[in-house]
Amino acid sequence: MKSLQNKNILLGVTGGIAAYKSAEIVRSLKKMNADVRVVMTKSSHEFVTPLTLQALSANPISSDLLDINAEAAMSHIELARWADALLIAPCTAETISRLASGRGDDLLTTITLAFDGPIAIAPAMNQAMWRDSRTQDNVSKLVANNTLICGPGTGEQACGDVGIGRMLEPEEVLNIFSSLFKSGKLISKKVVVTAGPTQEPIDPVRYLTNRSSGKMGYALANAALEAGAEVVLISGPTDLNAPEHLHFVSVRTAKEMHEAVQHHLNSTDIFIGSAAVSDYKPSKEYKNKIKKDKGKKSISFELEENIDILKGVSSQTKRPFVVGFAAETQDVIKNAREKLGSKNLDLIIANDVSKTDIGFDSEENEVTLITPRDDYFISKNSKKAISKKIIDFISEVI
Ligand code: CTP
Fold first, then answer.
1. In terms of CB atoms within 10 Å, which of 19, 105, 126, 192 comes out highest?
2. Residues pairing with 270 in the sheet
3. What whole-number distance in Å separates Cα of residue 45 and Cα of residue 38?
4. Rounded to the nearest whole angstrom, what is the distance from the C-alpha of residue 279 to the centroid of ligand 1?
5. Is the pTM of this model over 0.70?
6. Is 63 helix (H, G, I), strand (E, B) or coil?
7. 38 lines ligand 1 (CB under 6 A)
8. Lowest mean pLDDT segment, chosen from 291-295, 312-316, 389-393
9. Among 293, 275, 119, residue whose Cα is nearest residue 200
10. Residue 119: what are its φ and ψ, rounded to 5°?
11. Those residues with Cβ within 8 angstroms of residue 195's Cβ, 6 or more apart along the chain or in another chain
12. Annotation says 159 is catalytic
């Protein structure tokens, strides 16, 4: 199911027999990583207990417009501002009528008036009530107001009738509801990005690392997010703030980065290895700080090869579209093209790190995108602008 990571979902529950399904909806929304708050109408308490929905949502339930305590915690205006989307499930014929006529005489309807974002409803009622022309007129008004109508479904009803009117199953409701969040070229695609340097410990106070700032990887993760993708950003130590609205995984060593990549790889559509992974690590990590040996003019370390994270991804049988980076100081295109082949990549992004105004630790970059067929040069620009072009390019070719 689609991720609703970092989305604030306000669930309205009204008084119908299908209210028992709202517990499953809250559970599923939480599994989709949404933050959920529930607003219940008074009559819905007869069908499902506030305690159940409070426990499942891990947030207090709001019910009463005139409850001083509840208003002190989060007023109807604050709830309307907090929410990214509002779902009313189940939504009775009575609530549909009140929404259509713009009433604001209880907490739920008041919130819908104060709320600017998308609203979806999952109607639930007897088949004759659904077919009634007044209900149909009300539904038409809501559709004209851009309300998303999820269902209703057809089949046997709680009252014994058979026909259209029952609430869709929670999974069906949520599949339709989550379409509200679809926009951009990478909708419903999962993108995993590695970024930044790795640190390979020598002893408790020293490590091997490189000059990568992580800026390019973070910009790519943001560009993928803006294109509608679900994004996992696996980052080595950087000075950057973790971007919002994506799954951020902080790692230190190449081994940790490899493990995090393998852990998150399942059902990934695009893998972008922009991290500057240390090719080697000290063969031995000293438990205590290495003391200066005054008798010696030089000391040496043995280094051993780190696992190649990118190759680990491209060698999977059910592999994503794999993108690597080639940070080169000479024969940039030739070396990058060789890496494209040796690492079995779909795309490699070559950049010249010998210049100080682009590449490592700078705000700008200039890159060539190399596929097994063509090269595509992107002239000097901000890492943000370059990232958008790279993501556009990838979304065209996958
Ligand atoms: N990479 C990786 N795991 C490693 C080393 C590199 O996943 N252990 C990835 C980087 O994230 C990058 C690509 O491989 O996408 C190219 O890395 P680079 O260091 O430029 O190439 P190397 O294969 O290490 O070759 P060299 O250092 O000799 O240029």
1. 192
2. 191, 321
3. 12
4. 7
5. no
6. coil
7. no
8. 291-295
9. 275
10. -120, 135
11. 214, 216, 217, 218, 220, 221, 233, 234, 235, 236, 238, 274, 275
12. yes
Scan for tokens 């803006």, then name that residue: 226
Instruction: Give the pLDDT confidence score for residue 58 in this predicted structure.
Output: 96
The residues that bridge with 200 in the sheet, in sequence order, are 208
Q: 223: CA distance to ligand 1 center in Å?
A: 22
Q: Ligand 1: does its nearest atom lie under 6 Å from the Cβ of 370? A: no
- Per-residue pLDDT tens digits for 258-307: 999 999 999 899 999 999 999 999 999 999 999 998 888 998 989 999 99
200 lines ligand 1 (CB under 6 A): no
What Cα–Cα distance (Å) separates residue 102 from each residue in 112, 116, 144, 285? Answer: 9, 14, 13, 68
Atom of ligand 1 nearest to the CA of 305: 8
To which residue do tokens 């493990």 refer? 259
* Cis amide linkage into residue 90, ω under 30° from 0: yes
Domains, the chain, ordered by start: 8-181 (3.40.50.1950), 190-280+296-397 (3.40.50.10300)
Lookup: tokens for 339:
């890496």
| pLDDT score for 359 | 67
